[in-house]
Amino acid sequence: MLIKTLTDRLSADITPQEVYLNRRQFMAGSAGLLLPVSAIAALPATKSPLSTSEKPNSRDDITSYNNYYEFGTGKDEPALYARRLKTRPWTVTVDGEVAKARSFDIDSLLKMKLQERIYRLRCVEGWSMVIPWIGFPLADLLKQVQPTSRAKYVAFETALRPGEMPGVARRVLDWPYREGLRIDEAMHPLTILAVGLYGELLPNQNGAPVRLVVPWKYGFKSIKSISRIHLQEKQPPTSWSMAAPNEYGFYSNVNPAVDHPRWSQATERRIGEFFKRKTLPFNGYGEQVAGLYRGMDLRRNF
Amino acid sequence: MADSTTLARPLALHWQQPGPRLFAAIKVSLFLVCLLPLAQLLWHALAGHAVNPIEDLTRGLGTWTLRLLLLTLCVSPLRALGAPGWLLRLRRMLGLYAFFYACLHLLTYLWLDQFFDWGAIVRDIVKRPFITVGMLAFGLLLPLAITSSDGWIRRLKRNWGKLHRLVYVIAPLGVLHYLWLVKRDIQSPLIYAAIVAVLLLWRVWRYLRPTLAARVK
Fold first, then answer.
1. What CATH number did the domain enclosing A120 receive?
2. Where would I find the Ferric oxidoreductase domain in this sequence (chain B) (predicted)?
3. Which of A14, A144, A177, A269 fits as disulfide partner to A158, beta carbons 3.0 to 4.6 Å?
4. Does ipTM surpass 0.85 in this model?
5. Residue B95, CA distances (Å) to B42, B67, B75, B103, B175 in order
6. Does B58 map to a domain?
7. pLDDT tens-digit profile of A239-276?
8. How many angstroms separate the CA of residue A273 from the nearest CA in chain B?
9. Number of A:B CB contacts under 8 A?
10. Chain A residues closer than 8 Å to B54 by CB
11. Cα A186 → chain centroid
12. Number of folded domains in chain B?
């Protein structure tokens, strides 16, 4: 018992990585122009014509109301527990049907040409937000590995760290969390990998260090804390459709005409608003993406 | 100090048979305590720090409806376990509070979720099993609330007890309503289901006990 107590205390005494990283940032800052820490963490990003002009939700809303089951199924749990996730060092392995498989260090991803993309996010549960992401088109990354002609689909996987993710002790979903896109969806200019939010590094509860954002699909498609990207010929299995195939399909495009079997998808509550809004087909991005699904029965391919 | 006689009574006697003034105090306290969840929910929803206040309010009112319903169902087993008889005289208030929270829960759905779009509400009731079941539970709760007065108890005589056994249907429907609305993590509705199961199985056991005992003999 004594030994156990001692080790507990010892592990608690170790400075959390994020704290010492902050310390470093602070020292780097003081050595320079005595800039505040937040200015050091700021990500240089250009504006994008693909951003919406709608007013973004507050940083507080975006960082305290999250679905990230690896840290618990409550909306408030990711904000409480996600700080345990060590996001440095971090690599994203990209392999499969590609000419040049390789791993990307997170620092190299942060050096990509970053843009601000202010996107609507529609959760399958019936609420929505407007979020100012910082990131780069997924296509920019995929082009570097040169997908082969057999790369029809892209599979994504979230890191699985039982020691840092208290939620994975319960098998609410079949871990690790998995998602997937068709290659043309993945290469679409609206599809981005996000590394930041509100001009700063992505908070852990929002999927740090790097996450997918596909604004015309329900939020669960935008997989967080990606550790692996695999290009393949076959359609990959995805976590929510594995868990409930009759409720969640592979495509999961926002579609007010196709209800969730248990609730309507016709309307949504924009966080911060009193009245509900009508949900738009493809979450309002139909002009850009409807062509991807020409000739497909979207009731069947939900 | 008119109460010096009461004070002189042993504490155990106060517990078993509280005088009218003590019982009135207990009743008023319970009345106020049952309002605390509502106060907390309203404060949470209106203070401005909730991200999705309307959903929190709706869910919170539903949860407390279920909790009060289960508390009402706890009274008989507690009595059988030796709790004093005056507990039975508080049961009506617990039941009516369950109904009160159910009304507010329904109101948040009709108003803040559907904005009194009656066409959409009817479609919802027909199409969505969890709404159907919730509405059914509320519909069954209604006659119980109406007939909760002394006058109705007298008028219905023995039928009153039969009618109020509807609560044995309402509580499982309430749990089902919760279970079907949850996206994936059903741990919490399962806990409520287990409690309802224990409370109802105890009643089955109590009902069958004389028959079983006779058979053993």
1. 3.90.420.10
2. 61-174
3. A177
4. yes
5. 21, 11, 11, 12, 16
6. yes
7. 999 999 999 999 999 999 999 999 999 999 999 999 99
8. 9
9. 41
10. 269, 274
11. 14
12. 1
